[in-house]
């Protein structure tokens, strides 16, 4: 096998402290020996222009309901998502990939670009990318190639990044995602096209110590495998793009190909943003780089749209430039070095033969000199995964869960639990949805665990749902019971409810006594009810509920009050 | 030392007629006697050599000797050796000690070879004279053998030579080390002829194996897609012994071939009458010296007389080799040399106020004009607007050159016979009249084609010029034909009775 993973054969750098550079400004400029070209742009740019404005117009402005009007401007957004591949070692070296290790302790000589070292492709990374591409319905290119993309940067030791930008692993595909508006409760299904998925190396990190005027370089991240997922310009707003990224993240996590921890930089997003008037050609795009949370994606894109509109309305022009997002003041800022100055001087990577993907061993030629990876269809088990969209559809069609709730349940990984509760434990679908989407999720959040690590057993949860669906406990008591169960797991729900006195008040006598009390204390309100102010009913109900500590059905109370008042 | 070959030494060692320590000392003494030739840039201390020699001695005592046990071998200074300076003869790497060892070095050491030192070269292997080194030029050991004005002064450290013959390059140090007798075999690198050229000028066998047969891991690259570790020995048999010791797949070099390497011995019953030899007419170029032409013709005649079929063939794209090589070389150089920024290793100088200034200063002081020129040209060729016109076009021509080989070898031709160089070793004064680029174009004229096509090629000395310097020819064969190629070379070697350089008089001084 050509593409075997290096195991112990490799030597590792183990520098006790980060490489120190006195006051190195980060910049993308080339050294003075390197002539630079005035033209630049990546393949993505070219791809973008393939889509005519007319075609795009069919999609634009669908967010009208959720967003303030942009004075007749349409915004177009395309994304490049860099997802770190979940793999024990790097894309081309045997160094580890664990997050948060001491600086420069996970660096092989290849990662630090020591002369004479050569890349060896990690098959695990290829398999992860192929699995992802298949899940997203991409076409897998049987042959893909690696290129060197050159630019000088202190945290990229070789002076180039090995990427598949020009001959990617996979092309095409699409993703159906759920658009969620951040300001209204609107949710709807949308679909975005993917242009390509490519393998490439991550860079190291520069840490700038402004106080002491030094820059420190940490190469732990240098050479970690990335899947760059490039979308068509199919998004119209920050919410739209953020919704897509959330869904994509869920898919990658489900597949196990990326851990999806955006806060740790496992997924970073570049957004290409442009605005234009309907009917006009597409506007000049800017690229907002390195967005590392879905919130920042939303804020940065919306801010950039606003900024571009303002510039254009004031008669300015948008420059094709790279911008970064300052999360503190919510603004995008032009980066010092404009992307248009860079010519990446692509060169086919001479140390890696083309990568050939075979679906199984039978198609591998016996005397192959190329790098090849075979996908074991059986055994890896990925076909059996139920992806988020399938899970949502199941919840909707089989159990009648509305989209707005199925999104929440699936995102929190509660699909399996839901199925079991309903199918195996005879839980009511509505009661199950109601408990899981609110009390149970906030319970898990409080416990800081995910669905698989819940301290409450499925039997206990089912018991609780049964009690709830019979109306014997109020929704406000659920979290108390869940918390008790997590502390003293040997107790049954009944015992806890009993001990805490959480049973619903079922005796009409008690309720009627409370009603009498309320009505007696509020003669003015009774009068106005009698004059026709029906909304007083709600006031009474609330007051009665307060006396009963929430342990009664509001509708039951209300009907009793109505009876009583009508007899007055 | 004159007649000491790897094969002979192995025989003597096995019979205990000589001990590894004696052999190492012989070479070490010769090294000391010829330091003025400037072929070695880093000597392994004799204590360490003795330590390895004693280990080899144990193997011979136990009768469990390995393929190269006790054989002194030198490596060009672009092969990484852990904690041993590896400089590529450049100021950029003068302070550099690699933290790892190249596969070739490892394999030689595993086979029991004793590494005696690192040899001089053109800076980063860019050149064909071994004169563009930060350590100064390499002097061809054959200067000793000739009745030249400077013969005595070579031995005299006080005065300098008025003129002398160069060793060829870029692996001139490796060739000179073997010719002088400081080691029995040496490794160079061959990107456009850098092993065959100095082998030819120093009267040695220079083998460039099929691309992918020898691992490049740890060999500091010039042009990754053409670089091949080169083997310099006195004889063809030695060449095969060394090749057998180091060939085969390396998991750390994805461009090495998967198939298990089958070691071979020179077939001394090789039937020349069954061989078809092609003489590519495009290799008959202006500038070819009458002496080389005469040798070429005579050798073809000898083959024919022995029953081989010799035919003129055409390789129409060979004339584009040098331009094509130049573009591809510069492009890969521009890319490979981006890593020399002074951050992780190597020379760091200049202002640390900004990254650009630091890079610019370090690279300005670290590289010579030749290296900087190729980087500049390569970056120009790779610009988006130039990529198709230069890089892509050169790659297409490379394919055509490669197809020429395929066409010739599939037409029934087994091997190609060509000169290695236009002349015998040029003098330093003549060589330095023109720049590196001009000289490389002249020097590499017959050798780059094999690098373009990845085919194996061997240069072997067959006669002497009028002024007494070695004259060599080159044999090329199809991919992975090393076994048959070297067998034919061996047959030619036997016919020629080439006399190796005899410096034994130095020992008697």
UniProtKB/TrEMBL annotation, chain A:
GO biological process: glutaminyl-tRNAGln biosynthesis via transamidation; mitochondrial translation
Enzyme class, broadest EC rank: ligase
Residues covered by the Asn/Gln amidotransferase domain: 416-565
EC number: 6.3.5.-
The reaction(s) this protein catalyses: L-glutamyl-tRNA(Gln) + L-glutamine + ATP + H2O = L-glutaminyl-tRNA(Gln) + L-glutamate + ADP + phosphate + H(+)
Coiled-coil stretches: none
GO CC field: glutamyl-tRNA(Gln) amidotransferase complex; mitochondrion
Primary localization: mitochondrion
Gene Ontology molecular functions: ATP binding; glutaminyl-tRNA synthase (glutamine-hydrolyzing) activity
Subcellular location(s) per record: Mitochondrion
Keywords assigned by UniProt, alphabetized: ATP-binding, Ligase, Mitochondrion, Nucleotide-binding, Protein biosynthesis
Keyword field contains Lipid biosynthesis: no
Annotated NCBIfam families: gatB (TIGR00133), PRK05477.1-2 (NF004012), PRK05477.1-4 (NF004014)
PANTHER family registered for this protein in UniProt: GLUTAMYL-TRNA GLN AMIDOTRANSFERASE SUBUNIT B MITOCHONDRIAL AND PROKARYOTIC PET112-RELATED, GLUTAMYL-TRNA(GLN) AMIDOTRANSFERASE SUBUNIT B, MITOCHONDRIAL
Homology family: Belongs to the GatB/GatE family. GatB subfamily.
Subunit structure: Subunit of the heterotrimeric GatCAB amidotransferase (AdT) complex, composed of A, B and C subunits.
Role of this protein: Allows the formation of correctly charged Gln-tRNA(Gln) through the transamidation of misacylated Glu-tRNA(Gln) in the mitochondria. The reaction takes place in the presence of glutamine and ATP through an activated gamma-phospho-Glu-tRNA(Gln).
Protein name: Glutamyl-tRNA(Gln) amidotransferase subunit B, mitochondrial
TrEMBL record, chain B:
Record localization: Mitochondrion
Gene3D superfamilies: Amidase signature (AS) domain
Pfam families: Amidase
Major subcellular location class: mitochondrion
Domain Amidase: 22-486
GO BP terms: glutaminyl-tRNAGln biosynthesis via transamidation; mitochondrial translation
Keywords noted in UniProt: ATP-binding, Ligase, Mitochondrion, Nucleotide-binding, Protein biosynthesis
Enzyme category, top tier: ligase
Function: Allows the formation of correctly charged Gln-tRNA(Gln) through the transamidation of misacylated Glu-tRNA(Gln) in the mitochondria. The reaction takes place in the presence of glutamine and ATP through an activated gamma-phospho-Glu-tRNA(Gln).
Protein name, UniProt field: Glutamyl-tRNA(Gln) amidotransferase subunit A, mitochondrial
Organism whose genome encodes this protein: Elysia crispata (lettuce slug)
